[in-house]
Prior knowledge:
- The structure is a single chain.
- By secondary structure, the chain is an alpha+beta fold.
- The protein has one domain (17-85).
- It has 1 helix and 4 strands, in the order ββαββ.
- It has one helix spanning 41-54, and strands spanning 17-19, 32-34, 59-65, 71-76.
- Strands 1-2-3-4 form a 4-stranded antiparallel beta sheet, covered by helices on one side.
- Strand 3 (59-65) and strand 4 (71-76) form a beta hairpin.
- The longest helix is centred in the middle third of the chain and has 14 residues, at 41-54.
- The chain is globular and about 35 Å long.
- The mean pLDDT is 90.
- Bound molecules: zinc ion.
- Residues 9, 11-12, 14, 35, 37, 40, 42, 62 line the site of zinc ion (ZN).
Amino acid sequence: MKKQEKPTCPHCQARLLKWLPPPEASWGTTIQYVCFNDECSYYKNGWDHMMNKFQVKASYRYRLDSETGAHGPLPVWSDNAVRNLIVEEGGES
Ligand SMILES: [Zn+2]
C-alpha cells in the first residue's frame, strides 16, 4: 500500500496520530494511525453505544492500519487511555 502522507479522521477531520500497539494487541508492531481528538463524534458516540449495548464505561477511537489501510475501533476506557503509546511526530526519515 502506498504511504499516506497525513491521514485524517473521516469523522472529525482531525489529523491521525501515529500510535504503536501494545504487544498484546492483534496488530503486531504495525504502526496504527489513531484519532485522538476528544471531540470526535465517533469517540463521543462510542461512550453511549458501549453503555447502552454492553453496560460498560468505555469507548473507542478511530484507527487506521498504516500498512493494510484497514480501519476499525480502538477500544479505550478513558480520555487518557493509550495516549502513552502515541509515537512522537517529526521523527520521519
Ligand atoms: Zn476523529
